[in-house]
């Protein structure tokens, strides 16, 4: 119910806005990619055949619950626009994936190799950014 005035000077620093978005996404009870889909996305990004990998990730995105899918579509459309300005903002596809990968996809428990998970989490985000038009 809080009313925010985005013209307030506090919001001029893009890092504040980005940090707030990441914090919001991180504190969701379930990540944007539901826990039930985490292992499926990780398995899909490991597929060597690029065509099959692309189809599998697209099918997984389409299988997400509507609220997750629709939010992901809007978020990734925005992130693609951020990447379009990489010369000014230094946010390449890889940089965006590093920043958002672990926030958008995370396992239900941190039992496995977190460093290895992070590599694949970032690759999934990179793939979706690079193939946004095909996926959505």
Any overview of this molecule?
The chain has a single domain (9-134), classed as Rho GTPase activation protein (Phosphatidylinositol 3-kinase, Chain A, Orthogonal Bundle). It is built from 8 helices and no strands. The protein has helices at residues 14-26, 35-45, 50-62, 66-84, 86-89, 93-104, 114-130, 132-135. Helix 2 packs antiparallel against helix 3 (50-62) and helix 6 (93-104) crosses helix 7. The longest helix is centred in the middle third of the chain and has 19 residues, at 66-84. The radius of gyration is 15 Å and the shape is globular. The protein starts with 13 loop residues before the first helix and ends with a helix. The mean pLDDT is 92.
Describe this protein with a few key phrases.
mainly alpha, 136 residues, Phosphatidylinositol 3-kinase, Chain A, globular
Q: Output the number of helix runs.
A: 8
Per CATH, which architecture? Answer: Orthogonal Bundle
Instruction: Determine Rg (CA atoms, Å).
Output: 15 Å
Q: Tell me the structural class.
A: mainly alpha
Helical percent range? 55-70%
N-C termini distance: 31 Å
CATH superfamily: Rho GTPase activation protein
% residues in beta strands? under 5%
SSE order in H/E notation?
A: HHHHHHHH
What is the CATH domain class?
Mainly Alpha
And the CATH topology? Phosphatidylinositol 3-kinase, Chain A
Cα shape: globular
Kindly state the mean pLDDT as a whole number? 92
Number of domains: 1
The biggest beta sheet reads: none
- Uncertain parts: none
Number of strands: 0
């Amino acid at each position: 119910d809080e009313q925010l005035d985005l013209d307030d000077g506090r919001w001029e620093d893009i890092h504040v806005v980005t940090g707030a978005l990441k914090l919001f996404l991180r504190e969701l009870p379930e990540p944007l990619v539901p826990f039930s889909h985490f292992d499926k996305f990780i398995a899909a990004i490991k597929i060597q055949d690029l065509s099959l990998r692309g189809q599998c990730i697209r099918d997984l995105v389409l299988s997400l619950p509507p609220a997750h899918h629709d939010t992901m579509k809007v978020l990734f459309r925005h992130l693609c626009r951020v990447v379009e300005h990489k010369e000014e903002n230094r946010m390449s596809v890889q940089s965006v994936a590093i920043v958002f990968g672990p926030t958008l996809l995370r396992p239900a428990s941190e039992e496995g190799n977190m460093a290895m998970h992070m590599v694949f989490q970032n690759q999934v985000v990179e793939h979706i950014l690079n193939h946004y038009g095909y996926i959505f």
